[in-house]
Amino acid sequence: MEKNMKRNESIEIKRILDILKSKKIFIVLILILFILMGYVYTYHYVVPKYKSTSTLLLIPSDTYENKELTNIELLINSELIRTYSSIAQNSKILKQTIHNLELNMTEKQLLKQMKVNIIDDSYIIEISIEDTDAKKSMDITNELSDVFLKEIKNIYNLNNIGVVDQAQFPMQPYNVHHTKDIILFLMAGVMASFAYIMIIYIFDNTIKKEEDIENYIHIKSLGNIPVHNDKNQEIIDKRNAKTYITECINNIRTNILYMNSAKNAKTVLVTSCTPQEGKSWVSANIATSFAKTNKKVLLIDADMRKGRAHRIFKVSNKKGLSNYLNHITGNVRKDIRLGINYIQETKIPNLHILTNGTVPPNPSELLGSKNMKELIAILKNVYDIIIVDAPPCRLVTDSIVLSTIMDSTILVVNSEITKINELNEVKKSIKTVGGEIIGAVLNKKKVAGKIYSKGYSYEYGGQVELEETESEKVVSVARVLGKAILKLEKTNYKSLRQQKSKLIENKEEQNRKLTEESMEQQDMKKFMKRQNYYLAKIANTVVNLKDTKQEIKSMIQQEVSNIDYTQQMLQINDMLINLKDSYLELSNKINNTQIENDDIDKEENRNIIDFKHIKSKRVKKSLV
């Protein structure tokens, strides 16, 4: 999300810079115009005015005698100074000044020219007069100051007042600043230029050049076509048009071929955002350009509402695409033959046309139907390249639906008409349904008249321009379709032979496998016989072992039953009695010497029962 936002911001900044670059002449003219306006204003429109100022000192008597004043006294004196300044603008003083100098003006006019300024925290008043005449300004200021001082003396009986600075003759007008005025107008020109750029940015977001397609839409530009307004000459070739337009169309053809060569694409959908952008004109001329390269080309007018391909090539439109789709049978051979009724020849060699036909009630459903897919698949086996002229994308969904069927899609962009946001929406819609956009064509580009005589080149690396060949005769539809049927039959015959040979190979392989399996089965039977023989022998051996085991078991039981244990039990009892006596003797002699202990041990050893001896003796007896 953040990456998209940053990318959009960089795109918008780049667009503003592009506008600035493209409109630099207008911006320079705007700046020059504002500089000229500033020059005219400051030198010819501004009336020079001169300002003359006199400074008066008004100190009350008690203030002069008592130098130390309180805050309240200072406040009172400042209010008094304001009173004096208002007296300076009194009608009586103004009348007296006008009378003394015999001025030809009224009191209001003099009052407008007059300014009284009180210097803060002081007893000084400045009286200024502004006038277009410098001497008159000085005379009025001095006379007004004298009249004012006399009036103050008469009213307040002040002696500590006087003129500090008399009004001087002003050498330069105070309101004329040529450099400042021109700079201000220049800044206004900059602001006007910025406003002009922003207005263009907001209201004129159209594609103007090929770089705009690649920078703002992020798809390849296949080339541009200059403005061509001659409606009587809609098919362009070298014999009846300027070389520049022809070369533009040929270069677009080459770029389409190069972009489609990687995936061996045969069908090209041509559409636009809105009507009147020239998609039908571009489709017709691209198809014509391909036909000149000795390729079998079919132009399909899929604009079932307002198609005009039949008017461009001046052919009948009684039967066309809509009628063809309604009669598709599903049998490839029959459907190819059916094309004779709907596909027409044009005056251009190798170029056939399938007009839009009768306007159906459901164009979108018909174009997205199974029949349309089958028809395109059939025609791809007949023609080398198919150009489909589709309706504008923003009005109907027909082109969006068709883009899923076609190998590639081209967008026609009308220079300075097609908007960037609309083209992005169309691109997004086609990409969403899985359509493949290989590029865009900039149509109706404005160029200078001299450029028509210049060469033109727009290539991707490694592509090779096709050589144009002029065919003498127009190839009929019946001949093209007949060749397609023969090719289909040959293909079917080859496929049948391949299937037959494959069946023979499969049969031989099966026989070989059966032979191998029969041999394996015989070997398996022999192995099973041997295995059964040895298993029977093992079973007999196991039975014999069981019998032997029973015999041995019965013999052991018999021998055990014949053994007499009475004598051995008596001997054991006698031994236990002797052992008890020995134990008693041993306990009585426990405090004797070591030698006696040894003798006791020897005596005791003699009295121990030899169980091993008894056992071996019993085994010997049983074996006997």
Helix content: 55-70%
Residue runs with pLDDT of under 50 for 5 or more positions: 62-76, 452-467, 606-612, 619-624
Helix and strand composition category:
alpha/beta
Identify the overall geometry: flat
SS elements, strand count: 12
How widely separated are the two ends? Answer: 105 Å
On the 0 to 100 scale, the average pLDDT is 78
Count of discrete alpha- or pi-helical segments spanning 4 or more residues: 22
Tell me what portion of residues adopts beta-strand conformation. Answer: 5-15%
Tell me what the structure shows:
With about 625 residues, this protein is of the alpha/beta class. It has three domains: about 45-165, 2-Layer Sandwich (Alpha-Beta Plaits), CATH 3.30.70.1130; about 210-475, P-loop containing nucleotide triphosphate hydrolases (Rossmann fold, 3-Layer(aba) Sandwich); about 565-624. It is about 60% helix and about 10% strand. It is built from 22 helices and twelve strands. The strands form two sheets. The chain has an eight-stranded mixed beta sheet with strand order 5-12-11-6-10-7-9-8, sandwiched between helices. Strands 2-3-1-4 form a four-stranded antiparallel beta sheet. Helix 1 crosses helix 8 (about 180-205) and helix 2 (about 25-45) packs antiparallel against helix 8 (about 180-205). The longest helix is centred in the last third of the chain and has 86 residues, at about 475-560. The radius of gyration is 61 Å and the shape is flat. The two termini are about 105 Å apart. The model is unreliable at about 60-75, about 450-465, about 605-610 and about 620-624 (pLDDT under 50).
